[in-house]
């Protein structure tokens, strides 16, 4: 998959927008020719390119919440990780993720109550649900869709007819980006899922192998175009 993304990025401006921290995503992907946005788009950087005049630009709309985020993480680790088997608290810098994929079903309601109780002390934060994960985020008007709009604007692609944004995602939080494409009226939103789901995406791919095949075909098509 890494090589497929590398080849696509040689042909088109490419960004990876993830719920995980930007540093973790960059370390995992290990590509120097893509842009990275972590924490659901709340930690954005532009990767230097030869024709990009905004090299290294960063945008962090939730920066003022960092001290509170670290406090929340510490409390959750004490209240959840050590008391509910299978639960994991992840520091994603501008948000905190509580993973419950390995939590027994009988403990899920208790887990939810504990998280909600902790957040009662932090009214500027809210919970969103992802795939077997609860995300604790600052209550600001910013998500993956805004991050995509930021990239389009910074790259000069906001109000142009010859640019077709393409977004591939497999999580509930990716619906915000699908919504942006839908509103734009021009673009391709692809949901990755093996089962039918309610979505704003117009297309779907079943699994990562299909995503890989799609990206390779996209890169080959672009390289063969005049």
TrEMBL record:
Q: In which pathway does it act?
A: Glycan biosynthesis; trehalose biosynthesis
The cofactor named in the record is: a divalent metal cation
Q: Which domain of life is it from?
A: Eukaryota
Query: Which biological process terms from the Gene Ontology are attached to this UniProt entry?
Result: trehalose biosynthetic process
Q: What Gene Ontology molecular-function terms does this entry list? A: trehalose-phosphatase activity
- Reaction(s) this enzyme catalyzes, per UniProt: alpha,alpha-trehalose 6-phosphate + H2O = alpha,alpha-trehalose + phosphate
Question: What keywords is this UniProt entry annotated with?
Answer: Hydrolase, Stress response
Q: What does this protein do?
A: Removes the phosphate from trehalose 6-phosphate to produce free trehalose. Trehalose accumulation in plant may improve abiotic stress tolerance.
Q: Which family does it belong to?
A: Belongs to the trehalose phosphatase family.
Identification of the protein by name: Trehalose 6-phosphate phosphatase
């Amino acid at each position: 998959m890494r090589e497929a993304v590398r080849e696509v990025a040689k042909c088109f401006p490419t960004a990876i927008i993830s719920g995980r921290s930007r540093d973790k995503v960059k370390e995992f992907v290990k590509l120097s020719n893509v842009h990275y946005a972590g924490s659901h788009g709340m930690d954005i950087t532009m990767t230097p390119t030869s024709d990009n005049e905004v090299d290294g630009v960063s945008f962090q709309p939730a920066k003022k919440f960092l001290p509170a985020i670290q406090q929340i993480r510490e409390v959750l680790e004490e209240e959840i990780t050590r008391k509910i088997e299978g639960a994991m608290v992840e520091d994603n810098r501008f948000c905190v993720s509580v993973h419950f994929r390995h939590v027994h079903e009988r403990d899920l309601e208790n887990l939810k109550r504990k998280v909600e109780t902790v957040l009662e002390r932090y009214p500027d934060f809210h919970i969103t649900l992802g795939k077997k994960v609860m995300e604790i985020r600052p209550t600001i008007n910013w998500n993956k869709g805004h991050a995509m709009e930021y990239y389009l604007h910074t790259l000069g692609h906001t109000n142009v007819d010859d640019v077709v944004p393409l977004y591939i995602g497999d999580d509930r939080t990716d619906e915000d980006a699908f919504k942006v494409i839908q509103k734009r009226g021009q673009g391709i939103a692809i949901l990755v899922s093996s089962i039918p789901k309610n979505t704003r995406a117009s297309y779907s791919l079943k699994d990562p192998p299909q995503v890989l095949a799609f990206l390779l075909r996209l890169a080959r098509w672009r390289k063969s175009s005049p």
